[in-house]
């Protein structure tokens, strides 16, 4: 087992001054666009250059108890895909499965009842959105599903059977067709070869080997004194209460985990180290495949890869939080910005802040 390099987190006095300047801009954007809480991180391969959370857990209750905290959890949405891809890579490196493993080689008894157009789909196809699985990117698609029984893993198994009976996506012009549901099928493959549920793999690999804490579902379901997601009701931004009937367990491997900014930054920093040629939990070549192995979208990461730019990125939102992550291989930097709302104004603010951070550090 390769030794995980210890990441030294260094914030110098000059970076603290820069952080104060950025905080003023972020505060202004939050006030103007009704963003309850916002956090941002800039990392190099061996340092945290800037790390800050601002605002409050809820827009309707602003006091010392609900004030933003560096250890607040934020929902990552579809940035979960990079973590599922990371777990798949770990199993590939440990010879449990291959990127080219076909789904029906692991589940041969499913062939007869499945659409024959899916017979050759592989693990890499599913994780890179090239298996033509229906998207399931809207709540309406999930609402129209039949009820599945059992624990999360069993429900995803039934969901996968349902998906593989459906017609594939028809669009042949795109290199990939984005699908949350494809990640549920891929997770089933990882469970089959490991003998563990996807949730158990998260705990084994992310928590034990990387020493980062990963939780499932919304932060305020962990603890009421955590950030609340927000959405628009009757033209007003309101917090999503913890007992709201809003279940993403069928698509959990695609987009239903939350992490603190320091822990998520550690995960992203490992990816950046790998892209810059250092082995850690995974080999450097594996990281390069995850981010740039396939054009436009590889394994959990969208990308731009040419002579001028080598960028990998992903945004994630289930409608009440928003997370954006960018790794700039050429500049040797990574950026993370999160918020506990996902309105159009919030997203525009996040990208304005991103541009400011990139101008500041990416010179």
From TrEMBL:
The keyword Hydrolase applies. Residues 32-344 form the Beta-lactamase-related domain. GO terms for molecular function: hydrolase activity. Signal peptide: none annotated. It comes from Pedobacter punctiformis. PANTHER family: D-ALANYL-D-ALANINE-CARBOXYPEPTIDASE/ENDOPEPTIDASE AMPH (PTHR46825), PENICILLIN-BINDING PROTEIN 4 (PTHR46825:SF11). This is Serine hydrolase. The keyword Secreted does not apply. Its main location: membrane. It holds the Pfam family Beta-lactamase. InterPro entries: AmpC-like, Beta-lactam-related, Beta-lactam/transpept-like.
